[in-house]
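Structure in, sequence out. Go:
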């Protein structure tokens, strides 16, 4: 797709068809995203692709609002930063997530950014803890890697 059309077409998609996305399409998105700029070429962004329905359902329950759309996504990419590589992992991860969304649009997929870093699971009940801790436990994320966000992907309903 022409670049200006990709920019114009990208929008947040929160409702998806019940149609899988070929792994080749996800791999193409991640290969293109790997070319994104990063501070001092630190390449701190790491991606976890989730297409297991039970795990997507569990991720959709990460926050009391703003994450429910993940349950109907065909898959999701958890965008993490390797904090050992740079103090600017958040900036790098945000650029990576943006690339994922634009590459997804170019390949005919809808997407939505679902935020993790710094968010409470329930802003009205801090005792439920942080979204980051929920994701870390669910996906067994190692120390030193921090999730910035989850990008939901799928064909727009
Ligand atoms: C940093 C960031 C955090 C976001 N967090 C969420 C989120 O948790 N849940 C959600 O449904 N959308 C989230 N979004 C999507 C925004 O709501 C959306 O981009 C914005 O409303 C503009 O709409 P558009 O993407 O269709 O242009 C987030 C976007 C960004 C850039």
């Amino acid at each position: 797709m022409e670049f200006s059309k990709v920019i114009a077409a990208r929008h947040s998609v929160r409702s998806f068809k019940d149609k899988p996305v070929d792994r080749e399409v996800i791999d193409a998105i991640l290969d293109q995203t790997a070319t994104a700029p990063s501070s001092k070429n630190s390449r701190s962004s790491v991606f976890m692709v989730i297409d297991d329905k039970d795990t997507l359902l569990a991720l959709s329950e990460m926050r009391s609002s703003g994450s429910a759309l993940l349950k109907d996504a065909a898959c999701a990419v958890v965008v993490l930063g390797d904090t050992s590589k740079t103090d600017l992992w958040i900036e790098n991860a945000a650029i990576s997530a943006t690339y994922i969304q634009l590459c997804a649009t170019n390949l005919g997929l809808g997407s939505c950014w679902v935020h993790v870093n710094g968010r409470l699971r329930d802003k009205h009940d801090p005792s439920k803890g942080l979204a980051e801790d929920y994701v870390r436990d669910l996906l067994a994320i190692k120390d030193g890697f921090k999730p910035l966000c989850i990008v939901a992907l799928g064909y727009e309903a």
